[in-house]
Design a protein that fits this description.
By secondary structure, this protein is of the alpha/beta class. The chain folds into three domains: 265 residues, Spore Coat Polysaccharide Biosynthesis Protein SpsA, Chain A, CATH 3.90.550; 66 residues, no CATH class; 105 residues, Jelly Rolls (Sandwich). Helix content is 23%, strand content 35%. The protein has a six-stranded antiparallel beta sheet, with no helix packed on it. It is globular, with a radius of gyration of 24 Å.
Length: 468
């Protein structure tokens, strides 16, 4: 079987899964009972045993999260940074240009990294079937066999049978319930999964034919690419000139080469809390309970606690999601409308749209424990061997207390070690750095005091990760 080049799309924000999903920490990176959807996708492509180096398309904010998960799973990958999200057609175009470098013309297996597929065998079987279609010059999409009349997915109507699949008769937008019932009874429709397999040159040819503005912008941006450590950057201003269009609208709905291969597996794009409820195991009252949850006279609810006890009494068909800084309470029938809450938060400049109380950095993470007037307390966790930037602050001083591990501290001209239960003081405007030379995570409690405590009060003098 010909080697496949996986193209993993990581640019989504998962706004309908707020407050667990944030723009800086979207659903593909969320910890879900010890695993991530991105990690599950890597395991899926590893099981194929016929794949080349993966191409990961993500944005600037998610580059280190992507790199860390690749490293955890031992997967070789090249990370392509989008200067700005422009939907799937431009993202795949960048990957196609890069995969075609050095005269190669591989088959691209395009996968979103935020989907759930229950059966690896069914997935592998469908990929093998689609490979033959792609080798014959088709642009193949994977259509999931429907199990119920779903209004949250797009649909594909099957056309004439071809090698290992079907031509595409037409694509359908998300239907009304009556339309979905009719489609299901007809038996000719599949759910549109957003997964694809095609040769790089075929995609680029069809993109140039049907969406030349996207092709031109991506080609020009790619031609001025630069390598930044482990990341590949395309020319930002040129890429932003590309129209923001999905691959379905730009190419698949127009091309005579579009084909669909059925995928018979329990699949979900996990695009809403209702989808999470459907995928979760449930108790005898039909409740899906994650975390520390207590229920009484509660039925058909999705209840998700992350930091504290969630208790419900006398409620039905609710979604309750608790995080350290926000709680969502919604009727399950309104799960698609969470984005309306996001719109309100954005309009008022609320930071809960972007980040959690715990913020991930390439060296580890920090969590805000207390945020008061002229003081703030954080918990820093530094990965073994990691080092923070050499930096200074003009508006705050810091106290560091080691609660786990060993810290190597630079403070002004001094460099010294701190063990557990030892501390140091970093005065305002003093150059400093923190490093973990040990083999276990370093945990620091940091007390900040000063007139301004914002994250933008950082002057980086030197940085291992290329941040400015």
């Amino acid at each position: 079987m010909e080697l496949l080049c996986p193209v993993l799309l990581c640019g989504g924000c998962g706004t309908r899964l707020w407050p667990l999903s944030r723009s800086m920490y979207p659903k593909q990176f969320m910890e879900l009972s010890g695993h991530t959807l991105f990690g599950d996708t890597l395991e899926r492509i590893s099981s194929l045993q016929c794949t080349d180096q993966a191409l990961i398309v993500c944005n600037e904010n998610q580059r280190f999260l992507s790199a860390a998960i690749l490293q955890q799973h031992g997967v070789a990958g090249k990370i392509i940074l989008e200067p700005e999200g422009r939907n799937t057609a431009p993202a795949i175009a960048l990957a196609a240009f890069i995969a075609s470098n050095d005269g190669r013309d591989p088959l691209l297996l395009v996968l979103p990294t935020d989907h759930s597929i229950s059966s690896l065998d069914s997935f592998t079987e469908s990929v093998v079937s689609a490979t033959q279609c792609a080798q014959d010059g088709f642009l193949v999409t994977f259509g999931v066999t429907p199990t119920h009349p779903e209004t949250g997915f797009g649909y594909i109507r099957k056309g004439k049978p071809i090698e290992s699949g079907f031509s595409v008769s037409r694509f359908e937008e998300k239907p009304s319930l009556d339309q979905a019932v009719s489609m299901l009874s007809e038996g000719e429709y599949l759910w549109n999964s957003g997964m694809f397999l095609f040769r790089a040159s075929v995609y680029l040819e069809e993109l140039k034919r049907y969406a030349p503005a996207i092709y031109d912008a991506c080609h020009k941006a790619y031609s001025q690419r630069e390598h930044d450590r482990d990341f590949l950057r395309v020319q930002a201003e040129i890429f932003k000139e590309s129209p923001s269009v999905s691959i379905d609208y730009a190419v698949m709905e127009h091309s005579e080469r579009s084909a669909v291969v059925p995928l018979s597996a329990a699949w979900s794009d996990l695009g809403s809390w209702a989808a999470f409820y459907e995928a979760a195991s449930k108790d005898s009252d039909g409740n899906a309970c994650i975390g520390d949850v207590v229920t009484e006279d509660t039925h058909g609810c999705y209840l998700h606690g992350t930091h504290r006890l969630v208790a419900t009494l006398g409620v039905t068909d609710l979604t309750v999601v608790e995080t350290a800084d926000a709680v969502l309470v919604a009727h399950q029938s309104r799960s698609q409308d969470v984005k309306k809450i996001i719109e309100q938060l954005k309009a008022t400049g609320r930071t809960e749209v972007e980040t959690h109380m715990r913020v991930f950095r390439p060296w580890g993470s920090y969590e805000i424990l207390i945020n008061g007037d002229r003081f703030q307390v954080k918990r820093l966790e530094v990965k073994p061997g990691a080092v923070l930037s050499l930096q200074m602050h003009m508006h705050r001083s810091e106290h560091w207390v080691v609660v786990q591990g060993t810290a190597k501290v630079t403070s002004g001209e001094q460099v010294f070690m701190l063990k557990e239960d030892e501390s140091t003081y970093i005065p305002l405007a003093v150059m400093h750095r923190l490093e973990n030379p040990g083999r276990i995570p370093l945990v620091i409690v940091e007390i900040q005091t000063g007139a301004y405590l914002g994250e933008d009060d950082i002057i980086r003098l030197e940085d291992t990760y290329g941040r400015c």
